[in-house]
Amino acid sequence: MAKSIFETTIGAFEDRMMLxxxxxxxxxxxxxxxxxxxxxxxxxxxxxxxxxxxxxxDACMTWLEKAEKGAPPPEFCPNRDTILRIKSMGHTDEIxx
Length: 97
Ligand code: SF4
Prior knowledge:
Blueprint: H1 5-26, H2 38-53, H3 57-66, H4 80-88
The structure holds iron/sulfur cluster.
């Protein structure tokens, strides 16, 4: 039986959120330990929309398959600046050297 438009839309959204989670993890973003400033919370919310609307899903998947832990996000990721900003504020799982 064919999927409903609802199932198709939810499936596409879940696929993108999986890519987003993988991107945050491989680039070393960690947001559990400290309170996140409101401005960053807004950016995090926007990153969900950016990811859902991103036209680079295939390139993202390919990049994620090869990326090493701690790699900076790729230039084509619309969430690149947000990820780098969050990490620069100390929300990272990387150990300072
Ligand atoms: S490249 Fe696109 S799909 Fe991949 S994490 Fe960034 S915004 Fe999401």
